[in-house]
Write a structure and sequence with these properties.
Elements: H1 23-33, H2 56-62, H3 88-92, E1 100-105, H4 108-117, H5 123-143, E2 148-151, H6 156-162, H7 166-178, E3 186-188, H8 200-207, E4 211-213, E5 223-231, H9 235-246, E6 251-259
Parallel strand pairs: 1-6, 2-5, 5-6
Antiparallel strand pairs: 3-4
Helix pairs in contact: 4-5, 5-7
Length: 271
Amino acid sequence: MIAPKDKQGEEERPRKPTKRLSAIGLQLADLVFGRRCAMCSVDLPETQVLPLRLCHGCESQLCLPLPPLCPKCGSRYPQGQTPAEDCSRCRKRKLPFREMVCLGMYDGKLREAILKAKHARNQPLAAALAELLYNKRREKLLSLECDLVVPIPMHWRRRWLRGVNHTETQAAELGARLGLPVKHALRRVIATEPQGGLSASARRKNIRGAFRKRFRFKVKDARILLVDDIVTTGATCTEAARSLRRAGAASVDIAVISRADRPIPVPRNRL
Protein backbone atom coordinates (compact mmCIF):
# COMPACT_ATOMS: atom_id res chain seq x y z
CA MET A 1 0.00 0.00 0.00
CA ILE A 2 1.36 3.40 -1.01
CA ALA A 3 1.59 5.89 1.84
CA PRO A 4 -0.50 9.04 1.28
CA LYS A 5 1.15 12.35 0.57
CA ASP A 6 0.22 15.74 1.96
CA LYS A 7 -0.14 18.87 -0.15
CA GLN A 8 3.57 19.66 0.18
CA GLY A 9 4.40 16.39 -1.56
CA GLU A 10 6.09 14.84 1.46
CA GLU A 11 5.39 11.20 2.15
CA GLU A 12 3.39 10.61 5.33
CA ARG A 13 4.59 7.52 7.15
CA PRO A 14 2.22 5.25 9.08
CA ARG A 15 2.02 5.82 12.79
CA LYS A 16 1.08 3.51 15.59
CA PRO A 17 -2.07 4.63 17.43
CA THR A 18 -1.29 7.16 20.13
CA LYS A 19 -1.68 5.71 23.61
CA ARG A 20 -3.88 8.17 25.45
CA LEU A 21 -4.40 8.19 29.18
CA SER A 22 -8.09 8.56 29.97
CA ALA A 23 -9.89 8.88 33.27
CA ILE A 24 -11.61 5.55 32.62
CA GLY A 25 -8.27 3.90 31.82
CA LEU A 26 -6.73 5.18 35.04
CA GLN A 27 -9.72 3.99 37.04
CA LEU A 28 -9.41 0.52 35.48
CA ALA A 29 -5.69 0.54 36.29
CA ASP A 30 -6.58 1.37 39.90
CA LEU A 31 -8.92 -1.63 40.04
CA VAL A 32 -6.39 -4.04 38.54
CA PHE A 33 -3.09 -2.79 39.96
CA GLY A 34 -4.17 -0.56 42.82
CA ARG A 35 -3.29 3.09 43.35
CA ARG A 36 0.48 3.13 42.94
CA CYS A 37 3.15 5.75 42.48
CA ALA A 38 4.14 5.98 38.81
CA MET A 39 7.79 6.36 39.83
CA CYS A 40 8.47 3.87 42.64
CA SER A 41 5.24 1.76 42.56
CA VAL A 42 4.53 2.25 46.27
CA ASP A 43 0.84 2.14 47.15
CA LEU A 44 -0.74 5.60 47.28
CA PRO A 45 -2.93 6.56 50.24
CA GLU A 46 -6.67 6.61 49.62
CA THR A 47 -6.75 10.24 50.75
CA GLN A 48 -4.35 11.42 48.02
CA VAL A 49 -5.96 13.64 45.40
CA LEU A 50 -5.72 12.29 41.87
CA PRO A 51 -4.80 12.44 38.98
CA LEU A 52 -1.22 13.04 40.22
CA ARG A 53 0.21 9.55 40.57
CA LEU A 54 3.31 10.25 42.62
CA CYS A 55 3.92 9.49 46.27
CA HIS A 56 4.93 12.40 48.49
CA GLY A 57 8.50 11.12 48.71
CA CYS A 58 8.99 11.00 44.92
CA GLU A 59 7.20 14.30 44.43
CA SER A 60 9.52 16.08 46.87
CA GLN A 61 12.63 14.59 45.21
CA LEU A 62 11.40 15.58 41.75
CA CYS A 63 10.78 19.20 42.77
CA LEU A 64 14.10 20.36 44.18
CA PRO A 65 14.70 24.14 44.31
CA LEU A 66 15.91 25.64 41.06
CA PRO A 67 19.12 27.68 40.86
CA PRO A 68 18.82 31.16 39.27
CA LEU A 69 17.94 30.63 35.60
CA CYS A 70 17.69 32.98 32.66
CA PRO A 71 13.92 33.42 32.11
CA LYS A 72 14.39 33.42 28.35
CA CYS A 73 16.68 30.48 27.53
CA GLY A 74 16.67 28.70 30.90
CA SER A 75 20.47 28.66 31.24
CA ARG A 76 21.88 28.64 34.77
CA TYR A 77 23.59 31.81 35.94
CA PRO A 78 27.15 31.34 37.21
CA GLN A 79 27.81 31.84 40.90
CA GLY A 80 28.13 35.50 41.75
CA GLN A 81 26.38 36.80 38.63
CA THR A 82 23.19 38.76 39.29
CA PRO A 83 20.18 37.43 37.33
CA ALA A 84 18.89 39.89 34.75
CA GLU A 85 16.10 39.93 32.20
CA ASP A 86 18.28 38.01 29.78
CA CYS A 87 21.72 36.48 29.85
CA SER A 88 24.90 36.94 27.85
CA ARG A 89 24.03 33.90 25.75
CA CYS A 90 20.62 35.36 24.81
CA ARG A 91 22.12 38.70 23.89
CA LYS A 92 24.47 37.08 21.39
CA ARG A 93 21.69 35.77 19.15
CA LYS A 94 18.02 36.37 18.52
CA LEU A 95 15.96 33.43 19.74
CA PRO A 96 12.66 32.50 18.03
CA PHE A 97 10.89 31.95 21.37
CA ARG A 98 9.97 34.28 24.23
CA GLU A 99 10.50 32.33 27.45
CA MET A 100 11.28 28.90 28.83
CA VAL A 101 9.54 27.30 31.82
CA CYS A 102 10.99 24.18 33.42
CA LEU A 103 10.26 21.96 36.40
CA GLY A 104 13.82 21.23 37.51
CA MET A 105 17.40 20.45 36.60
CA TYR A 106 18.36 17.25 34.78
CA ASP A 107 19.89 15.49 37.75
CA GLY A 108 19.19 12.91 40.42
CA LYS A 109 15.64 11.62 40.73
CA LEU A 110 14.29 13.86 37.97
CA ARG A 111 16.86 12.55 35.49
CA GLU A 112 15.92 8.99 36.46
CA ALA A 113 12.22 9.76 35.97
CA ILE A 114 12.73 11.37 32.55
CA LEU A 115 14.71 8.40 31.25
CA LYS A 116 12.10 6.01 32.62
CA ALA A 117 9.21 7.99 31.10
CA LYS A 118 10.55 7.52 27.56
CA HIS A 119 9.28 3.92 27.48
CA ALA A 120 5.75 3.09 26.37
CA ARG A 121 4.94 1.15 29.53
CA ASN A 122 5.75 4.18 31.68
CA GLN A 123 3.41 6.76 30.13
CA PRO A 124 1.58 7.26 33.46
CA LEU A 125 4.92 8.60 34.73
CA ALA A 126 5.30 10.86 31.67
CA ALA A 127 1.84 12.27 32.39
CA ALA A 128 2.65 12.66 36.09
CA LEU A 129 5.75 14.72 35.27
CA ALA A 130 3.68 17.06 33.10
CA GLU A 131 1.07 17.31 35.86
CA LEU A 132 3.85 18.18 38.29
CA LEU A 133 5.17 20.86 35.93
CA TYR A 134 1.70 22.40 35.82
CA ASN A 135 1.23 22.23 39.58
CA LYS A 136 4.59 23.87 40.35
CA ARG A 137 4.69 26.40 37.48
CA ARG A 138 0.97 27.09 37.04
CA GLU A 139 1.15 30.84 37.54
CA LYS A 140 3.97 31.25 35.03
CA LEU A 141 2.36 28.99 32.44
CA LEU A 142 -0.94 30.84 32.66
CA SER A 143 0.79 34.21 32.38
CA LEU A 144 2.10 33.25 28.93
CA GLU A 145 -1.50 33.34 27.63
CA CYS A 146 -0.88 30.72 24.93
CA ASP A 147 -3.56 29.56 22.48
CA LEU A 148 -2.46 25.98 21.84
CA VAL A 149 0.08 23.32 22.80
CA VAL A 150 2.46 21.65 20.34
CA PRO A 151 4.76 18.71 21.24
CA ILE A 152 8.24 18.23 19.80
CA PRO A 153 7.78 15.38 17.29
CA MET A 154 9.85 12.26 16.78
CA HIS A 155 10.86 11.03 13.35
CA TRP A 156 8.36 8.42 12.24
CA ARG A 157 10.91 5.57 12.31
CA ARG A 158 11.98 6.22 15.88
CA ARG A 159 8.39 6.59 17.01
CA TRP A 160 7.40 3.35 15.29
CA LEU A 161 10.21 1.46 16.99
CA ARG A 162 9.59 2.99 20.42
CA GLY A 163 5.81 2.73 20.16
CA VAL A 164 5.11 6.10 21.73
CA ASN A 165 6.29 9.69 21.83
CA HIS A 166 6.35 10.53 25.52
CA THR A 167 6.43 14.24 24.70
CA GLU A 168 2.98 13.85 23.13
CA THR A 169 1.74 12.36 26.41
CA GLN A 170 3.16 15.31 28.34
CA ALA A 171 1.73 17.85 25.88
CA ALA A 172 -1.70 16.23 26.17
CA GLU A 173 -1.54 16.46 29.97
CA LEU A 174 -0.44 20.10 29.92
CA GLY A 175 -3.10 20.96 27.36
CA ALA A 176 -5.79 19.37 29.51
CA ARG A 177 -4.65 21.20 32.63
CA LEU A 178 -4.35 24.55 30.84
CA GLY A 179 -7.61 24.11 28.94
CA LEU A 180 -5.81 24.45 25.59
CA PRO A 181 -6.06 22.39 22.38
CA VAL A 182 -3.11 20.19 21.49
CA LYS A 183 -2.02 20.16 17.85
CA HIS A 184 0.63 17.93 16.30
CA ALA A 185 1.53 20.83 14.05
CA LEU A 186 5.14 19.81 13.46
CA ARG A 187 6.68 16.75 11.91
CA ARG A 188 10.27 15.63 11.86
CA VAL A 189 11.31 15.26 8.24
CA ILE A 190 14.94 14.31 8.90
CA ALA A 191 16.06 11.29 10.92
CA THR A 192 18.78 13.12 12.81
CA GLU A 193 21.42 11.31 14.81
CA PRO A 194 21.00 11.49 18.63
CA GLN A 195 22.05 14.85 20.05
CA GLY A 196 23.75 13.36 23.08
CA GLY A 197 27.52 13.71 23.01
CA LEU A 198 27.51 16.43 20.34
CA SER A 199 28.88 19.92 20.91
CA ALA A 200 26.56 22.92 20.86
CA SER A 201 27.54 23.84 17.29
CA ALA A 202 27.26 20.22 16.14
CA ARG A 203 23.79 19.98 17.69
CA ARG A 204 22.62 23.07 15.81
CA LYS A 205 23.98 21.69 12.54
CA ASN A 206 22.52 18.24 13.20
CA ILE A 207 18.98 19.53 13.83
CA ARG A 208 18.93 22.23 11.12
CA GLY A 209 15.93 21.80 8.82
CA ALA A 210 14.65 18.77 10.75
CA PHE A 211 11.12 20.15 11.35
CA ARG A 212 8.33 21.21 9.06
CA LYS A 213 4.81 22.40 9.83
CA ARG A 214 2.06 19.98 8.89
CA PHE A 215 -0.07 21.51 6.18
CA ARG A 216 -3.44 20.67 7.73
CA PHE A 217 -2.73 22.54 10.98
CA LYS A 218 -3.12 26.31 11.12
CA VAL A 219 -0.72 28.19 13.39
CA LYS A 220 -0.87 31.67 11.87
CA ASP A 221 -1.11 34.34 14.60
CA ALA A 222 -1.23 31.62 17.29
CA ARG A 223 0.62 31.88 20.61
CA ILE A 224 2.14 28.44 20.97
CA LEU A 225 3.41 26.51 23.99
CA LEU A 226 6.06 24.10 22.66
CA VAL A 227 6.61 21.05 24.90
CA ASP A 228 9.71 18.88 25.31
CA ASP A 229 11.11 16.75 28.13
CA ILE A 230 14.66 18.10 28.35
CA VAL A 231 16.68 21.03 27.05
CA THR A 232 20.48 21.06 26.98
CA THR A 233 21.79 23.55 24.44
CA GLY A 234 18.30 24.47 23.25
CA ALA A 235 19.11 23.53 19.64
CA THR A 236 16.06 21.29 19.15
CA CYS A 237 13.53 23.69 20.69
CA THR A 238 15.10 26.62 18.84
CA GLU A 239 14.81 24.89 15.47
CA ALA A 240 11.23 23.77 16.17
CA ALA A 241 10.23 27.26 17.34
CA ARG A 242 11.84 28.77 14.25
CA SER A 243 9.71 26.49 12.03
CA LEU A 244 6.55 27.59 13.82
CA ARG A 245 7.44 31.27 13.55
CA ARG A 246 8.15 30.88 9.84
CA ALA A 247 4.69 29.34 9.50
CA GLY A 248 3.17 32.50 10.97
CA ALA A 249 2.94 31.81 14.70
CA ALA A 250 2.69 35.07 16.66
CA SER A 251 4.90 33.74 19.46
CA VAL A 252 6.39 30.57 20.88
CA ASP A 253 7.14 29.72 24.51
CA ILE A 254 8.88 26.57 25.75
CA ALA A 255 7.71 24.25 28.53
CA VAL A 256 10.16 21.50 29.53
CA ILE A 257 10.38 19.02 32.35
CA SER A 258 14.08 19.63 32.92
CA ARG A 259 17.04 21.80 31.99
CA ALA A 260 20.46 20.17 31.72
CA ASP A 261 23.08 21.96 33.77
CA ARG A 262 24.82 24.23 31.29
CA PRO A 263 26.04 27.35 33.10
CA ILE A 264 26.18 30.69 31.33
CA PRO A 265 29.84 31.62 30.71
CA VAL A 266 31.17 34.34 32.97
CA PRO A 267 32.07 37.44 30.90
CA ARG A 268 35.82 37.82 30.39
CA ASN A 269 35.94 41.19 32.14
CA ARG A 270 34.62 39.51 35.31
CA LEU A 271 37.31 36.86 35.48
